[in-house]
Fold:
Amino acid sequence: MQDDPPHDWPLRGSARRIRARHDWWVVEHGTGPEVLLLHGAGASGHSFRHLIPALEGFRCLVPDLPGQGFTRPGTRGRFGIAPMAEDLADLCVAAGWQPRLVIGHSAGAPLALQLSTLMPLTRVIGINAALGVFDGAAGFLFPLLARALAATPFVPSVVSRLWGNPQKVRQLIEGTGSHLDAAGIGQYVTLVRRAAHVDGTLGMMAAWRVDRLMAGAAGLTVPATLIATAGDRVVPPKISHDAARMLPRAEVVDLPGLGHLAHEEDAGAILQAMQAWLPG
Structure:
């Protein structure tokens, strides 16, 4: 189909579509205990392309979030943390999944914590978990700007045209503190060139209210492991340490080097960091 990934897209042979409010593009890979992996804003499930094969002995369940990657959204009113978590829980039912561990990168981590209030999870692992807000005026203006852009006709198409090239995408990636190979950059170019993906990302950013989630942090009792990498320029380690002090059962694992896309740079280091918390 026209909206499906190109034939060389990572793990395309392990993917299918599932209709459950949205038209989800999901990867199901491997056998063993089920692990749900949730990508961050502006990415897709492809961001776990190196971590998935490293999780040998597990069944990895990897959806593209609504409006991003190759999941077609059923409605734009479901891009916030709470409704998106509800839709992920519905997806698990529709797909017959029963994961007890969720690994979330960046914005995928607050989604995982919200999901823990809807499903009996045994642990959440966050990789550079986006559990804080911007300081000062930026914290107020950023969601307003995203909301305005998301509501403006033709903005996604303009962004796709202006930024959908390797040089611009490499600048964006390196601005996060990460460095990807040419294939990794090319995959993000594919995403940025999709106006629907840009639109979904803006919609998610406009609806994102981590402050509301963390206001109820005392009730998020699922054990949580937060992996923080020193080179992250988007979600610095302080965010994970501050969040761990608010969550009842959280701990932080600090890693040297690596940027925001740490799991794409060095999946082995991330696997080693969370090895002790993976089910045996």
